[in-house]
Amino acid sequence: MGMTIAMLAPSNELCAQSPSLPPVPDPAATRAYIHTTWDTLTRSMTDCHSLVDLKVTTHPVLYLPANFTQTDSMKETAASCGVEVRILPRKIEKLGDVMPEEIAEPGLLYLPNPYVVPGGRFNEMYGWDSYFIVLGLIADHREALARDMVENFFFEIEHYGSILNANRTYYLTRSQPPFLTAMIRAIYEDPASFPSRTEADAWLAHAYTMASKDHETWMRPEHRAGTTGLTRYYDYGTGPVPEMADDSTYYSDVIHWLIEHPEQNHGFLDKSTAHPDAAEIERLRRTSCDVTRSTVCANAVAKGYRLTRDFYAGDRAMRESGFDPSFRFEAFSGAIHHYAPVCLNSLLFRYEEDMAHFAHLLGRPEEARQWTDRANHRRINIERYLWRADEGVFADYDFVHGRASHYAYISSLYPLWAGVATRSQAASVVSHLDRFERSGGLSMSQTNTGLQWDEPFGWAPTNWVAVAGLEAYGYKDDAKRISRKFTETIDRGYARDHTIREKYNVLTGSSDVRVLTGYKSNVVGFGWSNAVYLKMTELLR
After folding, report:
1. Residues 79-103: pLDDT tens digits?
2. What are the residue boundaries of the structural domains of the chain, listed by start?
3. Are 24 and 495 in contact (CB under 8 A)?
């Protein structure tokens, strides 16, 4: 049922390497590696390594919130690390209040507590990675560090307007998939996280206030998916993202592909020259991006074309989704902002249900009713727009054209994790597991595009969301089978090169990953892979 995107799909030689036989996998060795790697991946504002950003090539700058007092320890760090400490230009209430282009040099946004980073080029605290990392830290009895990370998110909400994609200045325009209430529950419900229930309840009251403010991010008009009553991904910035400076060919690769596949070019190309004159520069500001303010924009040209402003809007929204990139929302997901996605609306349903639960615990019955009403309203619209009764799956909805997507994607399992699927819907979704199940775990899709969030690649977060959803609905054998496949894939990869990676090839059941464009590397670390391995082995035991 899957198809291959011509010219972009990896060859069989790239996707199915035949390395020499690796050493025998040893789960105990994998667990030992994970146990020691938390410290390797931990960062703080007093650690010089935390300030390094491999994605942009500027000297380190640490930014403090407006009206924030610089402490002696910050001054000591600045002196010892050779970092400049600056203050953001004004107080931030919401995403987009301070735009990255207002900040002369990109830098790290201050957080008060230590945190775990994914690894490699991802040397900051990420919005959705952190949910899985928090689960792993609790499973490995690192509750204090897990709580520190969630409290860092409270700091982000209070001082930067929302949970951010990550704590860098160029992420001040977007968030990431909303797992905050799931993180709060993981901390609050773990007995080892607090010395007393009195302290736990006081913490929950503050967490509830912060989560209420973060929820407002997703209720802003820009995040509305048309008139569906559902929500879409959206980034308040314009033009290409600055963090792609270290992948100088990505946008030109996209242009080349769209030129070669005109049937897939849905208004994404804009005729231009490599060296525009003043009149064309002014036009490109309206139709594409500002070549005078962004080196990435200036270099994003090929064969007389640039990418349109609308493509960049989708490209940015795609990065808020965390699935960057795939062909799930047309070519390179350039139309994602035209869709109500299954994943986001499932997460927000769970968020609203969790908030109702917290309000009950805090003795606020009227607020609990309001949250339940929000969740029920979203449930009705998920049923109306995202459930495809004809295929028996959940699917994204193109609200611009009024049609459901036919792109098979692992996000169809998110409603099980969120608890929004009915029993019969869950049974139907499970009957279609073979769309994604491979020898090494669950693949992202059935479509081999050569992009990292498509076939044949499998990722820890989506495998865990699927497994947790299957278990919650009573499909324990399926949950265990997939957990066994994915943990064995990680074990084989670790036995081969003594690393744990960002993503895996689930067709070959290995870490031998070749991506043709986008993020081409398979980063070592790796925070969420470590965490999901621990959670899956817990489930198997």
Report:
1. 999 999 999 999 999 999 999 999 9
2. 1-28+436-541, 41-209, 243-333
3. yes
